[in-house]
Amino acid sequence: MLIYQLFILGCLLVFLGILIKNLFDVERLPAHSPKAFPFVSILVPARNEARNIESCVQSLLAQDYPNFELIVLDDNSDDGTGDLLQALAKNSNKLKVLHGSQLPENWLGKCWACHQLSRQATGSLLLFTDADTWHAPESLRRAVAAFQQSRADLLTLIPDQTLGSFWERVIVPLVHFSVLCYLPVKFVWENRNTAFAFANGQFMLFSRDMYEHIGGHESVRKALVEDVWLCKTVKSAGGRPVVFSGIEAVRCRMYQNLEEIIHGFSKNLFAGLGYSLFGISMVGIISFAAYLLPFGFLGYALISSLFTIEWFWLPLLHIILGVLMRGLIAVRYRLSIGESFLHGLSILMFLVISVNSVRWIKTGKGALWKGRRYDFSKSA
């Protein structure tokens, strides 16, 4: 028992070490302006985004960057998104609205929408961003400065996450946790191994040359987690992807209730692990052993008055380390510190969503998102 508890402690200390290193390595966007102002095409796919699209477009039109165009594609929305976009376009000569064509075979919706956008873009830099984002006026200027400073081919951001409901505050921060505690982010741009890959589709700034060199979104047209696979493709092509913290520049509200969280995470989780049952099983086992099982040991120790190192003190330390990691992330990325103490509940929900993600794919029910269902049972 003692050896097992020490092993878990060792794993948690490794995760804590990776986190602390990442907090230093992932720099904030520079405040200064770029040396030059290349023409940027800002590209926004929008499907059923009536509740977000006005805020997103208005924030992008308000950029203090002097040289850009904004193209938004209405991807066959049925909630009034198209009408809102047309009204916005009447008041700006920088905004161009496209009507998406029907989704062809062997394409996923977002990849097809981004592909159509890229074919209309004229910029030497291409910024793909989601319709549920909001951008500070200086965000593009700072991002281009970081792009030039880091000699990037692809720049992606970790944005500020707006969290409203209880379940958002409990579950959504696991996105930060899974990246910052398990992935040495510096390896994304310093190590050529494509296993070290991260990108966030909420903000991806490409050089046009690299984007076209890798085949754009067509190269990942069947990928549900297209942002990470684009990063892998850039690395495979010899390009340089970089990651910055963009919490002062860009914010996003990914989901607004528990149902949306379950659907969104279920869509991405199994796919993000390459449909590997072994991979998702190992992640689940480690998560259970490191963050949930210590509560069981602690409860048994309290009931049985077993205040020993292996039954009480080490499990208590495991729980403290999990909360500490969540707390450090919360401080850096302006998340709720209070929900750090509910880390066990977060992990429990993560395991439930993991099972649902596998079930969706393996049973052929398919991943459901934005009114479309994608059957990847053969891929899995």
Question: In whole angstroms, how far apart are the ends?
Answer: 36 Å
Annotated CATH architecture of the largest domain: Alpha-Beta Complex
**Structural class, please?**
alpha/beta
Write out the strand line-up for the largest beta sheet, numbering strands in chain order. Answer: 3-2-1-4-7-6-8-5
Beta-strand percent range: 15-25%
Low-confidence stretches: none
How many helices in DSSP terms?
Answer: 14
Q: Indicate the CATH topology of the largest domain.
A: Spore Coat Polysaccharide Biosynthesis Protein SpsA, Chain A
The CATH superfamily name of the largest domain is: Spore Coat Polysaccharide Biosynthesis Protein SpsA, Chain A
Order of helices and strands: HEHEHEHEEHEHHHEHHEHHHHEE
* Share of helical residues: 40-55%
For the report, how would you describe the main beta sheet? Answer: 8 strands, mixed
Give the total of beta strands.
10
The value of Rg in angstroms is: 21 Å
- General shape: globular
The total domain count is 2
Which class of the largest domain in CATH terms? Alpha Beta
Name the average pLDDT.
Answer: 92
Question: What does this entry look like structurally?
Answer:
The chain is an alpha/beta fold. The protein has two domains: 130 residues, no CATH class; 230 residues, Spore Coat Polysaccharide Biosynthesis Protein SpsA, Chain A (Alpha-Beta Complex). Helix content is 49%, strand content 15%. The protein has an eight-stranded mixed sheet, sandwiched between helices. Strands 9-10 form a two-stranded antiparallel sheet. A hairpin with a 2-residue loop joins strand 9 and strand 10. Helix 1 packs parallel to helix 13, helix 12 crosses helix 13 and helix 12 runs antiparallel to helix 14. The longest helix is centred in the C-terminal third of the chain and has 28 residues. The protein is globular, with a radius of gyration of 21 Å. The two termini are 36 Å apart. The relative contact order is 0.15. The mean pLDDT is 92. InterPro entries: Glyco_trans_2-like, Nucleotide-diphossugar_trans. GO terms for molecular function: glycosyltransferase activity.
